[in-house]
Each structure stands twice: as C-alpha cells, then as structure tokens.
Task: structure prediction
Amino acid sequence: MFPSISPVVSRKYLFKTCQKDRSRASRVSPMSLGDLHDNIGRIVGERYKLVRPIGRGASSQVYLAQDKTLDRQVAVKLLHAGLAGDERFLQRFRTEARRSAELSHQNIVTVYDWNDKDRPYIVTEYLAGGSLRAMIDAGNHLTPAQALVVGLGAAKGLEYAAKRGIVHRDIKPANLLFDGDGQVRIADFGLAFALSEAGMTQQDGELLGTVRYASPEQARGASLTQKSDVYSLGLSIIEAVTGEVPFGDADTSLGTLMARTESNVVVPDELGRLQVTVSRAGLLDADERPSAAELKVGFLAAAEAMAPPAKLPLVGTQAPIGATTERLAPTQIGTPGLVDLRKPDTTNMTVNANQTGLSPLDLDEPDGPKRKWPWVLFALVAVGSAIGGGIFAYLQSQPASFRVPALVGTSEATALRNIEGNGWILERLLLRDDLIAIDDIISTDPPEGTMLEEGQPFTYTVSLGPTTVSVPSSLVGERGEFVIEEIRAIGLDVEEESDYDEVVAPGAVIAILGETVDVPKGSEVTVVVSLGPEPREMPGGLIGSPIAEVSETLQALGLNPVVTSEFNEEIERGIVLRMSPREGRTGIERGEQVDLVVSGGPAPREVPYVIDLSVDSATAALEVEGFCVERVEGPSDGVVIGQDPTPDSIEDVGTCVTLFTIDPNAPDEPADGADDNNGTDENTPG
Result:
C-alpha cells in the first residue's frame, strides 16, 4: 500500500490500484460518453452547432462547432452528462470556469462560454494546430530547439496564471495545444481541479487523469503549487524530445508514483542545452524547483546558445499521419456558415387520402352522387399543389451538394478553381511526398466522387515536394568514394569538387557544401575532396639574407631547411650563399627538404709571432693577419715577451690576442726568492 497518496490521486489516478473511495464511487454509474458522431449537428446552448469531433478524453468529448451568434468557429468540450447531478463537482466547476474565463494570455486557451446545466460544457477558441500529444503519437520527436519553443511558451502561460494564484494541476502533452502558426496554448485551466471533486469514475476504475505526469507532491497528497505544474511541464518536454516519460515504465500506476517520490528526474542527454533547465524542473523537492518565471528565464538562457528551431511538426485536429508542417486556419469559399450534417428525413412525405380530409368511401364509390367529384378533384389538386410547394420549399431550404472532383495530381491553383463556389469550408494541409510534385494535390478528404454539401469541411493536402533526408555529419574526413556512395544511397545527387587542404589527407572529404539537414530527396549537394597540401613556390630574395630569416621563411611554408656552411673570405658569417631548390621554382611539396649553404666567414689561420716586438709593431702585425689585440699585460710602451694565443696556433680570423710586455730599460733583477744557488742558501746546512 501507499498510505501517503491523497484522496484526489486515489480517485483520479489510482482508483483501480488503491480504491480508497469505493463507497463514493459505487454510488455512480460507470462513465460512458457514447459515440463521438452521435452529437454531430446538435446545437448546444441554443447557439453552438457541433460540426465534427476533434478529440475525446476520459471525461469529455471535444467538437469543432459553429457559433451561430457570432458566426465563428469554436471548440466545444462536452463533459460527461452524469456530472450534471454531482453538486460538489458543479460548485467547483462554476468557480474554476469563472476564473479560467478571466485569464487572457497568448499562451493560454481563451474561454468564451460555459454552462453547468443539463450536460456541462465549456466553449473555447478553436486551435487548428492540434496538440503536443497528437504530435508525439504521430511519431514526431522534437529537437531541443523546438522543445524550447514549446516549453518557453508554456512557462509564460504558467507564470501568468501563477501571478493570479491559479494552479493547473494537469499539465500534460494533451493539454498543450497549438494554433496554425505553432504558438503553444495551455488548455483546461481549472478543469482538473473541478474533476477531482467529482464523485464518478470510469467503468472498472479507468483512469480519469494520468499519473504519467503527476508530481511527487501530488503522489503524496500534499498541497499543490505552481511548481507542481513546472514538474509536469518538464516531463512533457522530455517526452516531446525522446518519446519516453521518466518513471513511466513502471508496471503499475502505483509503481510510477512511488518512483516519483524517491528520486529526482534524470534528464537524457538528447535534450542538449535544455538538460540543466529541465533537470531543475524535475527535482524531487518542490522548494528547490524553479518557479514558472524562473523556468522561463532558464529557457531564455538556453536559447542564446542554440540555433533557430525548425517549424514545429504540427499534426492538426484532422491531419494525416506524417503531416510535418503548418495547418492553416479554415477558410470558406461560397456560402458562409456551417449546416446540419444530418440528412433530412423524407420517409413521411407520401401522400394518402386521409391528408385530404376525405374518406376512402368518398374516393372509391363509383355509384355515389356525381356532384362529389369536382370537389374531390379540387381537393386532390389543392393537396397536390400544397405538397408540391412544400417539397419545393423544403428542397430550396436544403444546402446544395456537389461531387468532389478528381483533384489528386493537379496543381493547387487548378484544384481551387475546380471547387470554387461549392461553399465548402476549406482546410489546407502540407505534406511531403516522393511521388507528387511540389504544389500538387496529394489527397482530399472526403475523396473523389463523394457528394458533399456546402458548408461542410473539405480538407486537401498539398505536396511540399519529396520527403527530406539529412546528410550525416560524420562523413566529413572519410574517403571521397565512400561518402559519395552514402549520399547517393539516401536519395541525393552529388557534385564532386577538389581542393587543397593542409590537414585533410589526399582523397578524403574536406566538406559537404549546401543544405545538409532536412534536404528534399533529389536535391544536389557538393562534396569537396582533398588534394592534399597545395604545392609551394620557392620565394625569391633568400640568397644574401641571414640564415635565421631564411629558415623562418621556409618553415612558415612547411618546408624543411637543412644548413651547411663553407668558408668565404668576402662574405660575412651567417649569410646564405646558395640554395637548392633554387629561388622561384614551383611545384615543391610540403615537407620537402631545402639545402642551404651559408658563409662561415674567412678560414682559420696561424697567429703570427710578435715576441720581441714593441706593442705598436705587434698590434700592426696581428691586424694584418685579421687578428686584434685584446689587452696588454705590462708597460704599453714595452717589449712583447709573450702572447696568448701562442704563435703558430690556428685560430679564427678576428680572434683577439693578449700581449705580455716588459720595460726594456729596467735592470735585470732576479725574481723574489731566487738566487744563483738554485734556491739553496750557503749558510743552510746541506
């Protein structure tokens, strides 16, 4: 058992499982709404003529209707007739209907009228774009960008209602409707709250609502706030993208609700940049969830990093499976207004003698007085004239009927000319078709040959051209032959181009040009195949330049400089003497080696002998050979007694030499501690 489930949940969501209110449910007969088509042509509230069904739920039927007073199309939701006797429901219904009728927002369905007598009903604006539920059931999964459009609009509607203290309590894909332009509107504000007070149930405990979108606090029977609606909206957005509802795979409704009360919603990666915002909406603790206003801000923030969305794949209230684009608001050609779709009853139009006021005897007795016959004939003529005039007036009052012509395969313009003046209410659908040319008619409803009265709806589907395919982005970088084969296999034509690329290997695909997402079959895309790096041309002006500059230039071109040097008596060290390949040569491949010969300056030579020369003479002798004097150790006007590097050593030109000198006029003196006895004092004992 699940003792914390509220009575509302047990009655509305889990009657079959929990059955906490058996005594109350047992007082009411099972809910049966009857055949949807039984009410076609019925006038509700002496004002709204029901034209055709557009949906049904556990407790209601929804019809497209014609408002006879204002001559406009509306949607009429007929609630179960048994609710008319449930005073607790009616009390809540009156309150919620009045509050809902006061809501005026672009993302909330407008309530025009309501009634709580006989069979309760609600009249709202008619939205031709269908519901998110229909969109999902048709197999359409929204992209994150498309889901953001839906979520943002719904969040705005919930924010508006929350500011007025109104909680929806039953946000789900079936209650998210779209107009012909794809703008979302929230339906059934207040209805869920009113139905929670109802004392009736479906036969065998069939669910009146759905636990698939119930919040944890709904499962616990806690008070509901706008954050419960935020949670349900988050689940609806996840289903719109993935086709699955979190926790919706439990074996029972009870299992689903129990799972909701144990953990946060895990948002799949498919939601992309919506993942963070929707994860917050699915938090277990309602206090930690964003409000509707905060959810709106989250969607707006996510939108800044997302590409513009494609059009929503509206299904419409009568769209065929696979309809992927707009459903236009119905238009009229010919006589305006909707008519009773029921056929006139002509079974009682046979004339008999009793209609004349004469008895069978007056007509059949040949032997009666002759004077009766003129009166009899006059009466018959009068009756016949009256009957004939009545039939003529009756026929004149009936709508004209026209046979649906053969329109499939003709252009839309031709089709409209062929049905002009028939007075049908036209509804236009757009659908992609691989066989029908663009702007030609794919199908009609009703089909060719059907007799259709003026004022009745006529739906025609126009081809948008071939169905679309998307080129896999993973093909870039693959071999060109493979990519071309794959693209042709999905129905696209390929034009091949080649170009140089510094990164992509020769023969691999650099890029796929043109539209690559939702491309009509038969369209052409361009595949650019790599020729590898573009061949280089050896630049000029390199010979005679410093090796550092030349190497930098060649490396920037992707070439590989290899340097050798040679001595040159005329060119200074580090200057490029010659190169191979030569300057100006073309067709050089990236990475190719370039041989550079660089001057090493003059060759090394012997250091001249300058000992015993004066400092000036020694300096002059060194400079003649390309050397220099670094410094003089001793008198600058003395005589050289030593040099470093030593004479006859091989050194590079430009090497500087240190000179060691003495004063030639100074007396000879032994060095400190020296004597003629080889360092042995004569007084020192041997």
User: Anything to note?
Assistant: The chain has six domains: 7-303, 330-335+400-465, 353-398, 468-530, 547-599, 605-662. Residues 372-397 form the longest helix (26 residues). Residues 1-33, 201-209, 319-398, 673-686 have pLDDT under 50 and may be disordered. The radius of gyration is 49 Å.
